[in-house]
């Protein structure tokens, strides 16, 4: 399966050097990956009957409404708490295995080839490349490994004896928390942030972008585009035609649960279907190629997918 955006052609070379004190930091959702990683994972869970397609459609509509009305701390903490309750007691190994399967099925073909090319340029220059994301760290590491990157920083949930406790270690890696995580990593690795690069699509990542000497707005939202222009930052847009809309969970909303799609699943009503797997694991509902017959996915443009509840 080819990466999304392959028609964009090679990215322009960047002025990067082989010095070990340089590194690059990439956001995930809408920067490296088309759409929200948690939403894609939720689709994978739905195809395995962990919850219904109708639930997923409701969740998508709710997130679209939140995108229009804005994020707030109450929304973030409410979604986070419900997600953590959902994952509590589940085995880390099961969530990671699901993450690997669903990445290959749902996300591998949605990588922005232009952004991935930029990351490879940094690697070829002898620099290390990290993903820095509010996505649960397990899923973030899977994405980094599949893309051949150095590693990933993500939201961390507490575990005990190989299972999730339902609590976070720290808080959701979002906004200023991302910037602090990069500072901490730079201190540990001996990086000179003035010689480092950072890439993001979101105005929420201005704290991280402001840390480095080479900030780049990638597929930016309107607020970040304006900020980048005002500050003289580079802008790279690999979208074509109509701008791609965000899909699934806004970055601030409860990306504090563990394992791919756990956040999305936790934000839904608990359906009591955890562990109820179809006869052939990894396959979608018969005849749909998607999660279930109770929902359909409409392709709106490059990488833009909407879940719509089907009439009964």
Automatic annotation (TrEMBL):
Molecular function GO labels: hydrolase activity
Membrane-spanning intervals of the chain: 247-268
Protein name: HAD-IB family hydrolase
Keyword line: Hydrolase, Membrane, Transmembrane, Transmembrane helix
Keyword Secreted carried by entry: no
CDD domains: HAD_PGPPase
Record-stated family: Belongs to the HAD-like hydrolase superfamily. SerB family.
Gene3D superfamilies: HAD superfamily/HAD-like, SG protein - dephosphorylation function
Record bears the keyword Nucleotide-binding: no
Taxon lineage: Bacteria, Bacillati, Actinomycetota, Actinomycetes, Jatrophihabitantales
Xref: InterPro entries: HAD-like_SerB (IPR050582), HAD-like_sf (IPR036412), HAD_hydro_SerB1 (IPR006385), HAD_sf (IPR023214)
Entry coiled-coil feature ranges: none
């Amino acid at each position: 399966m080819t990466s999304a955006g392959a028609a964009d052609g090679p990215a322009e070379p960047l002025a990067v050097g082989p010095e070990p004190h340089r590194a690059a930091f990439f956001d995930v959702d809408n920067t490296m990956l088309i759409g929200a990683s948690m939403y894609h994972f939720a689709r994978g869970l739905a195809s395995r009957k962990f919850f219904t397609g109708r639930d997923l459609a409701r969740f998508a509509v709710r997130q679209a409404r939140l995108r229009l009305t804005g994020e707030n701390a109450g929304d973030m903490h409410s979604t986070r708490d419900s997600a953590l309750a959902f994952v509590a007691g589940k085995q880390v190994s099961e969530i990671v295995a699901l993450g690997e399967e669903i990445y290959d099925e749902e996300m591998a073909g949605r990588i922005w080839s232009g952004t991935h090319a930029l990351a490879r340029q940094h690697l070829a220059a002898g620099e290390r490349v990290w993903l820095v994301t509010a996505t649960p760290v397990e899923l973030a590491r899977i994405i980094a490994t599949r893309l051949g990157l150095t590693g990933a920083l993500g939201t961390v949930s507490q575990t005990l004896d190989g299972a999730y406790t339902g609590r976070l270690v720290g808080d959701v890696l979002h906004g200023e928390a991302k910037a602090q995580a990069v500072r901490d990593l730079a201190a540990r690795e001996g990086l000179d942030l003035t010689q480092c690069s950072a890439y993001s699509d979101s105005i929420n990542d201005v704290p991280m972008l402001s840390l480095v000497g080479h900030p780049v707005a990638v597929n930016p939202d309107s607020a970040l585009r304006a900020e980048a222009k005002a500050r003289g930052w580079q802008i790279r847009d690999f979208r074509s035609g109509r701008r791609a809309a965000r899909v699934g969970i806004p970055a601030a909303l409860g990306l504090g649960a563990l394992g791919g799609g756990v956040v999305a699943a936790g934000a839904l009503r608990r359906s009591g279907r955890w562990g109820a797997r179809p006869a052939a694991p990894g396959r979608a509902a018969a005849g749909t190629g998607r999660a279930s017959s109770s929902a359909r996915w409409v392709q709106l443009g490059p990488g833009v997918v909407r879940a719509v509840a089907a009439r009964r």
